[in-house]
Amino acid sequence: MKRVLPPNLTDREFDLALKAFAKVVGEDWVLASDQDRSTYADIYAPGPEDQWPPSGAIAPGSVAEVQEVVRIANRFKTPLWTVSRGKNLGYGAAAPRLPGALVLDLGRMNKVQHVDTELGYCVVEPGVSFFDLYEHLERMNANLMMSVPGNAWGSVMGNALDHGVGYTPYGLNARHICGMEVVMPDGGLMRTGMGAMEGNHSAHLFPFNYGPSWDQMFSQSNLGVVTSMGLWLMPQPETSLLLSMSVPNEEDIGWVIDTLTPLKIQGVIEQSIFVPSWLGKVVLMGTRKDFWDKPGRMPDWRVQEILKQNKLGFWTVGVRLYGDEAVVRAKADVVKRAFKRSTDIPMEESWWRQGEPVDVMDPSNGVPSAVALQMGDWVGGRSAHLGFSPVVPATSKHVLGQMRRSKKLIEDYDLDFYASFTIGGRFCNNINMLMYDRDDADGVRKVKALFDELIDVTRKAGYGEYRTHLNWMDPVAETFDFNDNAMTRYTEVIKDALDPNGILSPGKMGVWPAAYREHAQRGKHS
Amino acid sequence: MKRVLPPNLTDREFDLALKAFAKVVGEDWVLASDQDRSTYADIYAPGPEDQWPPSGAIAPGSVAEVQEVVRIANRFKTPLWTVSRGKNLGYGAAAPRLPGALVLDLGRMNKVQHVDTELGYCVVEPGVSFFDLYEHLERMNANLMMSVPGNAWGSVMGNALDHGVGYTPYGLNARHICGMEVVMPDGGLMRTGMGAMEGNHSAHLFPFNYGPSWDQMFSQSNLGVVTSMGLWLMPQPETSLLLSMSVPNEEDIGWVIDTLTPLKIQGVIEQSIFVPSWLGKVVLMGTRKDFWDKPGRMPDWRVQEILKQNKLGFWTVGVRLYGDEAVVRAKADVVKRAFKRSTDIPMEESWWRQGEPVDVMDPSNGVPSAVALQMGDWVGGRSAHLGFSPVVPATSKHVLGQMRRSKKLIEDYDLDFYASFTIGGRFCNNINMLMYDRDDADGVRKVKALFDELIDVTRKAGYGEYRTHLNWMDPVAETFDFNDNAMTRYTEVIKDALDPNGILSPGKMGVWPAAYREHAQRGKHS
Asked: Which residue, among A63, A186, A206, would best test binding to B if mutated, counting the most B CBs under 10 Å from its CB?
């Protein structure tokens, strides 16, 4: 990818900045060749990658280097786009929201700084991947379980900070962050929580500050660069039991949610419960042309045929219970009784006991896997996907409404419907996977128009997205419209106070610093 | 209490401000007589109340009035000290940190705006007391359980925002806040979380914002005035079972914690577990002179006698399990097995089933009670108390160290030792109750010197307080000393950006706006 400069900088100024950065991190870690830029582009970009072009990347190796890089960025006015490992596929990967921002790649900072097996937590740096942490815990025989996303090739920290979800009782990953070290936009270093006291023993145990609590202000955030954080880990249970069933019809999601949510709120089910539609299973069995070789969405008769041939329901329900065997048994009875009130379909039971091998295809086991990446091959060509991800209350009324609304629109655009609902408490994360071939310009245009419309109709119905791709960060921020977008406005007051030069991740989630606010795509869509 | 003006204001300017406030809230709700000032003083003040004198109080009745009051306060430079109901005994009650600030009393805003029985949450205004909410839930037969503090006469919101603790599975009250409406320091209105979208159905369900999450920035905070908030409520369980025992010796707290913490982290015990020392029981049986009529601390032989006569241990352990009867039975077996590994003392069992009356003396039942207020009479005279409240990791090593350290110091000062440890997760809140007669000037001096020293030795050992009385807000803030008190410094950058006139609660938790920063007691103690 050709050189793209940060806004308002000349080639000469930019080169001077790169030289200054190289003095800090070493020349090898200033990455600004054409090839480097391609490496940091959005490889799933809906449309040409040069819509979100980095000017290059800098990869510091220590907290002190991050601090110095941030100070230099202030001096030269070179905006930085922070990524942990840059694997955020479907949301922009490593690419920056602001064209020409330099990617601040924290992947080299990949130490597991600490694991406490007694109190169940770890302290990780941004570059630690789920696989790194898993191996670390295995090596030390820590007897702690991770919460992993479906595709676990990314950063533990990046996932938690971006509100990614897992499927164990610790599935609300961001809620298990506790105590951070953060490089602030002026290059100063801050610690949150009890760790704001040097040497405090409860730095990663107590989830509040003395005074206003900061941790969550650094999630989905451009207010600082998190260089390490505490993350609570669940003790390995003695046993776990998977109760599963397939339910045949799309409308069954209604009673499924109304059965599961009370059990989740009562604490009978502790995990975040994942309910994917059939295509979630079928993408792992092959590519689209193995099932349907014509353009446009699969017709309903063919979907029914595939379900029948593969003994699949429209939705798959899997509930995993964790703990002492007798407790799990008693809970399983409660779950089974609840399902019996709505269906005669029997639940399959599958026990796991400590020491036994686990099914890595099932993220509720807390073992990282990249199998879900296979979805990337579904469409064929330079296959990619976007996730349209609204939050809905975990009741049939809202879930059915959301399912019908997005399904109709997705099918109006002639795309296959592929959704999941994950019950994380009193709400569901609804992910609608939109898959496309990046080389099919018409298809990409269609997907983008669909995405615009999904945001609009969903907002009109009273729901918002929890996360989105670079291309829609501003439009989604605009849907948070109470009192003239007060939340974004006040966040920007803070942004300007902490980051007067607008150095850190301008535009992240629609939060713009004064210095680059004219780049916000407000009042217009893609 | 005689009139005390806000800093830098003349009588005439102050009177003009009061008139302007009266136009908004009505003359009846501008409270600035000598008697009014006494009403809003710290009735438990360690020393004369006029150390923390309000200039008066204003009690708005609606969000619009709060907004207008804040705008007028900006115009006249009258600092406001926000209280929900002002019942924060032991921490300053309604009194302001900055002498002459006007108390912004939100007690009139006392509507339960909404209760959702299906998804288990309520939306409350600041003036809603625990008793109000309890009666509201009872009246509507909501089948939802509250998390209540030991003494429940205060505000539900005030308690949660100040990181107060309860003793049910929802005992970490601040973690169950979800979605707020906040009047900002410029008088603008903001909503957090999904509620930042007008009409969003998940406003009180999803615990994050799109972008940086604000909720916890408004806890223990002077960055805004919270006018309503969502709070998750637990579904009434089918049954609950109290397992209890007395343990004889002070050092037993070590194995007790090491037994309980793993069960808490594994999720076998869901509640926040309260372990009080013997005096917590004895204060409810009478006043001090009924047990010991000499000055100075009770000698150990007398303590042993009291324990024997009343069949008490040094510590009382009460574990309550909640839920389906079979699940509770299975969990109880796990708990009993764990205790058997350390003691032969049998656990008493006491079942509760839905529909049965509950013991209101036990806050783990979630029923509000003010019985704990009786502690206020213990010492005699104008009896009062302070809580010294550090957070320690929930392991024997840290808990024993903390117990020995504070016990020795408290006894060196010739005071009775009265402590509790509440396991809220991976940490304990340790509360050391210091009781004194406000009219005993020598005793008050002693308690204050003790408090100073407790802060110092505890900080030196690597622990910090989670909450403190007005008099020590600055010294405790100073103990959070990482990188030249970075946390407080950056919080103050935000404070100044949002609140350039320093109107809202200057000095709260040691966070000072530029306008009044010279009032901070930095580098010196009481």
From this structure: A206
B361 and B440 housed in the same domain: yes
Give the chain B residue whose CA is nearest to the CA of A396.
B118
What is the layout of strands, in order, in the sheet containing A80-83?
A: A30-31, A56-58, A102-105, A80-83
Tens-place pLDDT, residues A388-413: 999 999 999 999 999 999 999 999 99
Residues B152 and B208 in one domain: yes
pLDDT at B524: 58
* A167 touches B at CB < 8 Å: no
- Examine the domain organization and report whether A250 and A204 are in the same domain: no
How much is the pLDDT for A406?
A: 97
Span B264-299, pLDDT tens digits:
999 999 999 999 999 999 988 888 999 999 989 999
Give the chain A residue nearest B174 (alpha carbons).
A208
CATH number for the domain including A77? Answer: 3.30.43.10
What residues make up the domain containing A272?
A: 239-467
B chain contacts of residue A161, beta-carbon cutoff 8 Å: none
Residues of A serving a catalytic function are 91, 466-467
Among candidate residues B187, B211, B235, the one where a domain is terminated: B235
For chain A, which ranges sit under pLDDT 50?
Answer: 526
Is residue B526 one of the residues assigned to a domain?
no
Residue among B208, B427, B497 minimizing CB distance to A493: B497
Q: Is B308 exposed, middle or buried (0-12, 13-18, 19+ CB in 10 A)?
A: exposed
* SS3 of residue A291 by DSSP: coil
The verdict on A192 and A214 lying in the same domain is yes
Q: Is the pLDDT of residue B486 over 60?
A: yes
| The pLDDT of residue A524 | 57
Task: List b or e across A243-263, with b for residues whose CB sees 16 or more CB atoms inside 10 angstroms.
Answer: bebbbeebebbbbbbbbbbbb
Pairing of strands A56-58, A102-105: parallel
Judge: B212–A220 Cβ closer than 8 Å, yes or no: yes
Q: Is the pTM of this model over 0.95?
A: yes
Chain A closest-CA separation from residue B63 CA (Å): 14
Instruction: Decide if A526 is inside a domain.
Output: no
CB within 8 Å of chain B, chain A residues 418-457:
425-427
User: What CATH number is associated with residue A308?
Assistant: 3.40.462.10
The share of chain B scoring above pLDDT 70, in percent, equals: 99
* Domains contained in chain A, number: 4
Whether residue B99 is found in the same domain as residue B140: no
Q: Are B79 and B101 in contact (CB under 8 A)?
A: yes
Residues in B closer than 8 angstroms to A333, CB to CB, are 326
pLDDT of residue A526: 46
pLDDT at A381 (0 to 100): 86
Give the CA distances from residue B523 to residues A195, A311, B191, B518, in Å, rounded to whole numbers and listed in that order.
21, 72, 37, 12
Tokens at B503, concatenated? 């109107």
ipTM metric: 0.97
Q: Which of A179, A207, A235 is the last residue before a domain boundary?
A: A235
Q: Are B211 and A511 an interchain contact pair (Cβ–Cβ within 8 Å)?
A: yes
Residue A464: which of B210, B329, B467 has the nearest Cβ?
B210
Query: Is residue A429 in a domain?
Result: yes
Average pLDDT over chain B, rounded to an integer: 96
- Encoding tokens for residue A279? 């295509």
Q: Tell whether B503 and B357 lie within a shared domain.
A: no
- Which residues of B are tagged catalytic? 91, 466-467
Q: Specify if A6 maps to a domain.
A: no
B96 plus B123 within the same structural domain: no
The answer to whether B202 contacts A327, with C-beta atoms less than 8 Å apart, is no
CATH number for A202? 3.30.465.10
pLDDT in tens, B238-264: 999 999 999 999 999 999 999 999 999
Element (H, E) at B56: strand B56-58
Same domain, B93 and B184: no
- Probe site for chain B from A117, A210, A271 (most B CB atoms < 10 A): A210
**Residue B461 to residue A53: CA distance in whole angstroms:** 50
In this prediction, residue B153 has a pLDDT band, given cuts at 50, 70 and 90, of confident
